[in-house]
Amino acid sequence: MASPAVIVIGAGPAGIRAAARLVEAGLRPVLIDENERSGGQIYRRQPAGFTRPASALYGSEAAKAVALHAAADALAPRLDYRPGTLVWGIADGAVLTQRGDRLERLPYAALILCSGATDRIMPLPGWTLPGVYSLGAAQIALKAQACAIGSRVVFMGTGPLLYLVAWQYVKAGATVAAVLDTSPSRRRVLAAAALAARPAVLAQGLRYLAGLRRAGIPVLTGVTPLRIEGHGRVAGVVVSDRAGRERRVEADAVGLGYGLRSETQLADLAKARFGFDAVARQWLPETDADGRSSVPLVYLAGDGAVVRGADAAELAGRLAACAALRDLGHAVPEEEFSRLRAALRPMSRFRQGLENGFPWPGHLAAMLPNETIICRCEAITAGAIRRTVAETGAPEMNRAKSLGRVGMGRCQGRICGLAAAEVIAAARGVPVEEVGQLRGAAPIKPLPLTAELGPDEG
Amino acid sequence: MSASGHEAGLFRRLAETGRRPVRLWVDGQPIEALEGDTLMVALLTQGLVLRHSEFGDGARAGFCMMGACQDCWVWTEQGGRLRACSTTVIESLRIVTREVPWPALP
Fold first, then answer.
1. Can you say whether the dihedral through the CA atoms of A271, A8, A320, A160 is positive or negative?
2. A99-153 confidence digits (pLDDT tens)
3. Rounded CA separation B20/B16 (Å)
4. Has residue B36 been placed in a domain?
5. Residue B102 lies in a domain
6. Which of residues 30-89 of B touch A (CB under 8 A)?
7. Looking at A311, A328, A354, which one is the last position of a domain?
8. How far apart are CA A148 and CA A139, in angstroms?
9. Cβ contact, residue pair A50, B66, below 8 Å
10. Inside any domain, residue B77
11. Residues 6+ apart with CB under 8 A from A153
């Protein structure tokens, strides 16, 4: 059997750039990706046979998307590239994968996790109705399938993606009923200095907003989401506006999201040490400036380590590969490290500006009516979580999961975990960091019962 | 179009409609999708539901579209499970939107 390779998980901006740097050093890394086509979520490709040009799919980011796809395609023959493959566990220096009915165990010399991010979700009454999707989903429907999630769409939440996706829908000819932002606009003024660390990105965001206003789309800031109404499908969205007045917007679909949360379950299975990140309001794997985790030869890059966006992910992926190469005894010029670290600095500052300008509205959890479903896998309500806390004294997430099933479903808390933590923290009257985070458990996603280890495995 | 102005389905196609048609069967009824559609898009451009919550709280039609939430499972007539957001339609696929009673696994 060949000696273990360096394994990169995730073929988005971070993973592709990491793999490219390893190839430059003469290695043949393994690149594993759950998607059938490389590019990650932000630069997700449309299926073969679709004809829209890159400019229609990626707007101002088209050149970056095209460059990244070209890099990935040129790289593929020089990699052990495994698309459409789920990494469902990490144990004893090996990753555990599944594709179709085939399971494999792949030992690694070093492991670079580029697992990306998903939408940060704060539930509200009605959010399990057909027609309610994450903002990321709304964007994927458009980008990868040329569909709108509805005929009259409300975008609700906060963060740059809220405005970007709304604008992409308008440009694609969809009807956008309103953009409802929980962040008050004064937060952006306060965050302006940090946001100015990336003036071009800031200007782009302002252009989306101006475009939405020009198109006559109502944009409300500082709203409090109250409920999504409808029977069997979405009929409308009700919020309380800045002045405390109830406002109802008629719609048949909702794109919902409050920024992004790092996808950290694999880092947890790799036994990386986590710390509470006060900016993201999330437990994140600890890394040094180059992406080294607390576990030797395990590295993190991209939004899965900390949400700084695609440009930062490309740099961080390359930097983590440099760190891995150096730790494995390859020569990497010091100049390359210092250049990449310097390029990432304004991105970290910008990220702080975004989190301050579009804050996660954790405080809304305390106001959710008891009947609000928090965990959509197991239909566990806010009231049920509060009862579990009150009756059993469950002090943290993992006890609440054992005793009340929240986060125990098929998504393993990926969707509800942050909100559930806020519900528990509010019920106990403690800061959210005190209730901890759900431990990752393999398999992180369901496996088919028919899957088997290959003949030379196990 | 219904009185409310909605089309029959949840999703609305905005472009790329010139693709080759693909026929599949949903709960015994034929539907036509387009080559390259995900199962989710095939079903929700002409329907409102992918599955029903096991806990009786109503219909579901997926949520994250990126394989994270696991809330878009549908079943083949043989009892196999498909994640609708990440499955591409193929000709003559036969699926059901209600779970096949256990034990129907192969």
1. negative
2. 988 999 999 999 999 999 999 999 999 999 999 999 999 999 999 999 999 999 9
3. 10
4. yes
5. no
6. 35-38, 41, 44-45, 48-50, 53, 55-71, 80-81, 85-86, 88
7. A354
8. 8
9. no
10. yes
11. A138, A169, A174, A175, A176, A177, A251, A252, A253, A254, A255
